[in-house]
């Protein structure tokens, strides 16, 4: 007899059993469909968001055939590779022409293919008026309505500009500026008005904030205004580019590019990039280096597929075990009618085929629907449009087949158990109790310890492959320990109230059902915690390495030395009116030596006299990481010792060498106690008292010796020729003073832009000059775009000699949203696994629940029992997943530490700080909110009353 005959019967029995137990079947299919759905949606999203070469060309040149630009070295021959016009070379033996009055311009239109049509493109940064005030942006001159720009610039609202007085804005600029179609704006350079006729978007960069006008509408009038009015700064326009449509639709060929290269013109051609010529036809082939593609994508894909397969098996395995126990009488009848053990196993495996195929099909279809539904959100997160939904049929089919195969694998163990069960026990419904394995926890513990050790070894050796292998081993070892952990939890329930005690004991008694569900939750949470821990650590590292221009949470209203008191007053009023500031304002003044020049600071400002703190010589005052023996020292010290040295006042001075307030290199300023409180954040009554008494406050102790500093003042005097004010017309004298100072604690040495605060009366006693610089304000929050634009509008009315400075932020602030998305993903998997396991528990323990109702248990016991069962699975899985996720994150940070130490040893001033930061908000959310929500949902969805249809047993 054909073996297919037995399988036909098995599939028929399995199909009828699936339809008979609809609730359990839905749960099993959902468990298989959930990972398939996630993998399908992830595959579609990843393929759609990854730009192809054609997409990259469209983002650069739109629908044009090519983009031509002058190489910038004059009309001499250049050589370029086919795909990248920016990476060009001079021919062998060629040399750059000297810019000694020679004409380096190139007639680019003459180098275009004959019969082609072209558009010009040029851009310039500009300040424009908005609904809120004034904003900085970039204006691009190009005929954005031309078909050659389709795919690169798309109209969202209104129409494209048709005259020189019209302009369009991107969606990002329109939202920030508050401008809409029909509004007018002014480009402050030429001072001309433009009407906003439309809103566009760049599909490849949805976050772009810029304006588009017709060629000649902005830059040419701006240049004319600058030529006639010297107070108008000329535009800083980019080089012209030509978007070209080839003759008769033939495109731009490689010979066309070679001909353009001979005239000093380079080009990016769609046809050439998509179909590059052989290297024998490329003069620069031997000189251009082609980077080999990284092979990390295959490893990452295999890891994701393996984890998804494991999750399906862990989720669906107990469901098939429950189904086999519920159908044991039916399986016993098969055996009593002459069915073999193999046929009994085939019936259970057929359930895996039916439910696995159903779950795979439903999951793949739902993955398509979810991707289409969430497509706008994913496009906004990625900052680019998908274009068309990229479907790779073989990948989707492989994912669906994976769901089917793993559904069968999940039914394999229950099938083996069902095949071994005696027919008599199956017919009577009796089954003995099995003791859990005592060997498995021991093996799991050994594998867990070995996996952790291997991951840490890989981190210390800098091998991410070894880290990945060790992390997987550690997780597998923890999986082996879960049954023992569940049994331990059952013993903990002795002193708990009734329902949690029953829930823990039920979980311990049915470890074959509880342990895989906990493992599935653990797998999802482990990945989330690992990525969240790593990104949180990277964010902390970036924040540590960031060198702010101002103290965090402050803003400064600053005026140049040539600005008048009225201009500074207007800038202060702009900040106080539009920025969210506290009531405290700290005025700050500049101080210099020499003649009372009106022009200060800047290169000419040095002629008015300079101030400099002289750092004492010796070990406590010089940075050991910047002297001659720095590299030898870096080879000997650890990361912690390097961090201590980098934070020392002597080395911090090297790190914070840049100036904050324009032109004030010496970093000595005049201010009062309020400057200590608002900007330095030094809340020390002794320091404020010393400053009020006339004693300067030194923030960097490396410049002090015995409580004194050495101040060198170079006094420069003008000979009377105020119009030239050249260095040759100066006479300078140098004076050195020793000042008694109050030395602040070392942690204030890193205060941006300030080394010492001097009282005004002390400056006058030393014969120094003092002039207004500005004010420091403490912000209650970050200002919005509307507030910034309103303040900038007020500043522009005050003139160009004053401005507002706000503190810059470290990179990586978007990682919070990434961690939130990861936490939400883990929450969905946790809730799904916990709720599904609770449903299986109810189906498997229906006899116990009926018995509870028969002996008089309150209706709420059934509801609370379901809630505690769900809480047990979710909370245990989250806690174990957190522990498992920390292992790869720590190991990967050790890899980063190794790389940072190598960089530090070659560049001693390079920071080697590599912190490990746990994402406590994410962990707290997963450990508290998600299990509590799972328990409440399970309790709310449980029917509290069960009618007794017949006597059980």
TrEMBL record:
One of its GO terms (cellular component) is plasma membrane. It holds the Pfam family FtsX. Residues 273-298 are annotated as: Disordered. The chain crosses the membrane at residues 300-323, 344-374, 394-418, 439-460, 466-493, 514-534, 868-892, 912-941. It is found in: Cell membrane. The keyword Transferase does not apply. InterPro entries: ABC3_permease_C, Macrolide_Exporter_MacB. Keywords: Cell membrane, Membrane, Transmembrane, Transmembrane helix. One of its GO terms (molecular function) is transmembrane transporter activity. Residues 304-421 form the ABC3 transporter permease C-terminal domain. It is a multi-pass membrane protein. The keyword Transmembrane applies. Belongs to the ABC-4 integral membrane protein family. This is ABC transporter permease.
């Amino acid at each position: 007899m054909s073996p297919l005959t037995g399988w036909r019967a098995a599939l028929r029995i399995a199909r009828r059993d699936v339809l008979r137990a609809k609730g359990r079947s839905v749960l099993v299919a959902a468990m298989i469909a959930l990972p398939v759905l996630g993998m399908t949606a992830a595959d579609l999203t990843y393929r759609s968001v990854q730009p192809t070469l054609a997409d990259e060309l469209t983002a650069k040149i739109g629908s044009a055939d090519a983009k031509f630009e002058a190489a910038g070295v004059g009309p001499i021959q250049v050589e370029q590779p086919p795909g990248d016009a920016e990476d060009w070379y001079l021919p062998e033996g060629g040399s750059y022409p000297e810019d000694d009055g020679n004409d380096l311009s190139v007639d680019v239109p003459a180098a275009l293919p004959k019969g082609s049509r072209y558009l010009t493109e040029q851009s310039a940064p500009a300040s424009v008026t908005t609904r809120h005030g004034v904003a900085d942006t970039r204006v691009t001159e190009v005929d954005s309505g031309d078909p050659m720009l389709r795919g690169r610039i798309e109209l969202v609202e209104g129409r494209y500009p048709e005259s020189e007085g019209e302009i369009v804005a991107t969606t990002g600029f329109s939202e920030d500026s508050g401008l809409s179609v029909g509004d007018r704006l002014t480009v402050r350079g030429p001072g001309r008005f433009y009407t906003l006729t439309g809103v566009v978007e760049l599909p490849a960069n949805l976050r772009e904030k810029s304006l588009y006008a017709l060629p000649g509408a902005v830059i040419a009038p701006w240049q004319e205004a600058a030529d006639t009015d010297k107070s108008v700064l000329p535009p800083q326009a980019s080089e012209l580019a030509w978007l070209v449509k080839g003759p008769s639709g033939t495109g731009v060929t490689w010979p066309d590019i070679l001909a353009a290269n001979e005239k000093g013109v380079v080009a990016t051609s769609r046809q050439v990039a998509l179909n590059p010529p052989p290297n024998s036809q490329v003069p620069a082939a031997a000189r251009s280096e082609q980077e080999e593609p990284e092979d990390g994508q295959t490893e990452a894909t295999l890891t994701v597929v393996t984890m998804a397969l494991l999750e399906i098996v862990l989720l669906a395995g107990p469901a098939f075990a429950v189904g086999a126990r519920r159908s044991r009488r039916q399986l016993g009848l098969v055996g009593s009618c002459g069915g073999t053990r193999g046929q009994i196993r085939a019936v259970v495996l057929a359930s895996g085929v039916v439910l696995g195929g159903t779950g795979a099909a439903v999951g793949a279809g739902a993955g398509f629907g979810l991707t289409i539904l969430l497509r706008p959100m994913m496009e906004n997160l990625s900052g680019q449009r998908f274009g068309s939904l990229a479907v790779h049929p073989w990948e989707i089919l492989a994912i669906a087949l994976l769901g089917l195969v793993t559904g069968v694998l999940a039914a394999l163990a229950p099938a083996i158990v069902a095949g071994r069960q005696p027919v008599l026990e199956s017919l009577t419904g009796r089954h003995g109790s099995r003791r859990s394995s005592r060997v498995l926890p021991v093996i799991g513990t050994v594998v867990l310890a070995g996996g952790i050790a291997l991951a840490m070894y890989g981190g210390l050796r800098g091998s991410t492959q070894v880290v990945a292998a060790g992390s997987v081993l550690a997780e597998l070892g923890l999986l082996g320990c879960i049954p023992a952990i569940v049994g331990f939890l059952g013993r903990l329930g002795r002193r708990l109230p009734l329902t949690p005690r029953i829930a823990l004991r039920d979980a311990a008694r049915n470890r074959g059902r509880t342990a895989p569900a906990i493992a599935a939750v653990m797998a999802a949470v482990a990945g989330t915690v690992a990525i969240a821990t790593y990104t949180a650590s990277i964010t902390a590292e970036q924040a540590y390495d960031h060198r702010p221009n101002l103290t965090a949470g402050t803003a400064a209203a600053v005026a140049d030395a040539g600005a008048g008191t009225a201009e500074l007053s207007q800038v202060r009023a702009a900040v106080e009116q539009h920025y969210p500031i506290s009531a405290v304002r700290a005025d700050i003044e500049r101080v210099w030596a020499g003649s009372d020049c009106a022009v200060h600071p800047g290169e000419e400002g040095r002629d008015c006299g300079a101030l400099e703190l002289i750092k004492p010589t010796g070990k406590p005052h010089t940075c050991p990481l910047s002297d001659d023996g720095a590299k030898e020292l870096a080879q000997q010290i650890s990361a912690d010792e390097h961090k201590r040295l980098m934070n020392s006042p002597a080395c911090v001075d090297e790190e914070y060498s840049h100036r904050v307030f324009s032109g004030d290199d010496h970093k000595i300023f005049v201010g009062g106690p309020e400057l200590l409180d608002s900007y330095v954040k030094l809340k020390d009554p002794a320091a404020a008292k010393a400053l009020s008494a006339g004693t300067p406050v030194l923030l960097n102790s490396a410049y002090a010796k015995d409580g004194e500093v050495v101040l060198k003042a170079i006094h420069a005097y003008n000979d009377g020729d105020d119009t030239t004010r050249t260095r040759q017309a100066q006479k300078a004298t140098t004076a050195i003073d020793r000042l008694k100072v109050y030395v602040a604690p070392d942690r204030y040495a890193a205060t941006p832009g300030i080394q010492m605060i001097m009282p005004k009366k002390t400056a006058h006693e030393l014969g120094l000059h003092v002039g207004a610089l500005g004010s420091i304000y403490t912000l209650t929050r970050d200002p919005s775009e509307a507030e910034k634009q309103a303040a900038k509008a007020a500043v522009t009315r005050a003139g160009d000699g004053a401005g507002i400075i706000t503190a810059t932020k470290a990179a990586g602030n978007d990682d919070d949203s990434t961690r939130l998305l990861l936490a939400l993903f883990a929450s969905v998997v946790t809730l799904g696994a916990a709720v599904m396991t609770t449903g299986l528990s109810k189906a498997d323990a229906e006899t116990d629940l009926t018995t509870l109702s028969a002996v008089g248990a309150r209706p709420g016991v059934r509801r609370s029992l379901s809630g505690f069962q769900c809480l047990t699975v979710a909370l245990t899985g989250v806690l174990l997943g957190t522990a498992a996720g920390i292992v790869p994150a720590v190991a990967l940070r050790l890899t980063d530490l190794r790389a940072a130490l190598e960089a530090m040893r070659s560049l001693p001033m390079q920071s080697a700080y590599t912190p490990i930061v746990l994402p406590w908000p994410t962990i707290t959310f997963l450990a508290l909110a998600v299990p509590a929500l799972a328990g409440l949902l399970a309790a709310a969805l449980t029917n509290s009353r069960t009618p007794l249809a017949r006597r059980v047993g």
